[in-house]
Amino acid sequence: AMNLFSSPIQVTVHFEGQKSRKMVPVQTEKGEKMLLLYKAREPVTGKIELAIKPGKSVGHQGITADLVGQIELFYDRGNHYEFTSLSQELESAGEFSASKIYPFDFSTVE
Question: What's the CA gap between 26 and 84, in Å, rounded?
Fold first, then answer.
């Protein structure tokens, strides 16, 4: 079967040191998920790889990396509280026609 609505872009996020970083289970709407654990004042760095299918071109409104920090209190399970939200513009609006890797660095997280 052919998927007529598949995306021409594949997005992969690589976090610096992810293989050695502690992971914790987190409940989501789709079940349990293992996520990387960062402590206070640890930088969150890495790279985002956007791979486009050969011969394809996609217009975009800009490419950003967003870091959202949430916490769930032990006595208040199910309610998440946002404690930080940072954004980095990686590229302004334009045309995307070749695969590219964008580094990101959220080293000012408190």
Answer: 18
Residue 44 structure tokens: 């969150």
Encode pLDDT of 18-61 as tens digits: 999 999 888 777 888 898 988 888 899 999 999 998 888 888 99
Beta-strand pair 80-91/44-52: unpaired
Strand order in the sheet with 100-106: 9-15, 44-52, 100-106
* This prediction's pTM: 0.76
Counting beta carbons within 10 angstroms of the beta carbon of residue 83, is it exposed (0 to 12), middle (13 to 18) or buried (19 or more)? Answer: exposed
- DSSP annotation of 5 reads T
HEC states along 38-106?
CCCCCCEEEEEEEEECCCCCEEECCEEEEEEEEEECHHHCCCEEEEEEEEEEEECCEEECCCEEEEEEE
Nearest-angstrom CA–CA distance, 91 and 62: 6
